[in-house]
Each structure stands twice: as C-alpha cells, then as structure tokens.
Amino acid sequence: MPPRKKVPPQKKQSLKQKVAKTADDARKAAAAVAAAAAATAATATAAGEPALAAAAGAVSGVAGLVALFSTIVQKLANDPPRDDFDEVWVSSAALDENALPTEEPQRTIVLFSVQHAILADNFYALVRALERHDGALEAGNDDAADAQADAAQQNADAITASHQALQDLAFPINGAWTAATAVVPPDFGSLTVEDMRQHFLANWGDPPENPAESPSDSLSAVLAALTGAADDLLQPFDVGLPDPILGADEVPGEPAELIGGDYLSSLADAVAELPGLVVEEE
C-alpha cells in the first residue's frame, strides 16, 4: 500500500492561528488603502489631475481585493468539513502580462491587484481542499482524503510562489504611489466615511458582494489580466464580520505606506506555516 498523505492537526491549528492574524491585518489594510484612494481622488479632482484621480480609482481595486482576501483567510481559520470531497480543485489562476495597462502608475497598481487576486484564488483552493479533506476523513474515505491532501499541497505550493511575487511588488507599488501623490498629497483631514464608501463603490463593482456582475473600469482592468481564477472568486465569504470598507465607522489615519508593513508581515508569517502542511505516513 502506498504511503497515506496526512495534514497533521497541530500543523493545521498553527496555520489557523496565523491566518486569523492575517485576516485582521488585511481588514485594517483594506480600510487604510480605501481611505488613501478616496482622499487622493478628491484632491486630484480639485487640482485638475485626471491621471492621478484614475490611479486612485485603481487603488480602490487594491482595497477591494485585500478586503476580499480577509474573508478567504478568515474562512481558513474557521473551516468546517465538506461532503463534496469527490471533487478536487487545484488553483490555476495566472497573470496575462500582455493585458496589463501600459501607463504608470496604473500598470504597477493593476499588476499588484492581479497578483493579489492570484494569491486569493490559491488560498481559496487551499481552504476548499482542507475542508474536503476533513470531510473525507469523517466519512472514512481514505482515497478521497489522500486526493484532497495532494490538492492542498499543490495549492500551498502555489501560495508560496504567488506570495513571493506579491512581496516583490510591495516596494514598487508603495514607491509608485508615493511618487504619484508627491505633487498633490491626499487630504485626509476633510475625508468622511461616506466619501470613502462612495469612492470605493464607484471603483469596485455592482453589486459590491459580486462585483464581477458589473465591474468598474478599475476592476475590469484587473479582470482582463487575470486568467484561470474561480468564477466566484470575487464573492466574499460571510465570516460574521462587517465589511472593512463599507462597514467602517471611522476614517483610518493616513498610512505611512500604501501597503502597510503589518499586513505584509502577518501574511508572510502565515505563508511560512505552509511547508510541512501535508506529510506522508506508512
């Protein structure tokens, strides 16, 4: 009999603890990015800088993807068993670089968004594989449990690669945003929660819980360069928490960087738990 593949419970529990922290930091980051986008759009419009206003719209897309991602990793922290373990899913999300915008800073912003969407799809597939793995174990179906463990490993490997690509883009997007807003700095002092919500809604999609139905121009640019992702990727999980942008009750303070270090650090900590997630036992 070939070795059985197993997800060690203690390893999975450690991963759950790390992704719970990542989810919290992602919610905070999403709100901060949405506020930065809205504050910049207001000053850019007032100053007659349409290119900067368009870049702010693209940044709202980043905020939406980070908010979406928070629900996916929160789902991993709370994953219940599933009984559809006869289905196996390995993420195939990828970047179509030829479909990216050519102008900066939009190109860098959209590239970051696409890479974050790929990471989200990878995590989504990992969540599903782990849920199905647990369901197969509960049903006593060892072959299905093995297949789901194998899918979990492949999705974990995809996460490691896509996370590295995202980390490599953090410095460029922060630098591009700093340069773009240097001449016309965002005005956080006059920004309201409603301003932030309305700017996000205008640059995400309708309805916000399924923006792919009628995506904004900003989101359409991301979707054009994203291939192979799940059809329902942009539909957030209901994790019992308010939307970090639409449910915000205050405007976050001005961030030191567009993509904050706390979020990037906790994300890296979670990804560092993935090696050894699946092991073989005789």
TrEMBL record:
Q: Which keywords does UniProt give here?
A: Membrane, Signal, Transmembrane, Transmembrane helix
Residues crossing the lipid bilayer are 51-73
Listed Basic residues bias regions: 1-19
Where is the secretion signal located?
A: 1-46
Q: Which domain of life is it from?
A: Bacteria
Q: Where is this region: Disordered?
A: 1-21
Name of this chain's protein: Uncharacterized protein
The major lineage groups are: Bacteria, Bacillati, Actinomycetota, Actinomycetes, Pseudonocardiales
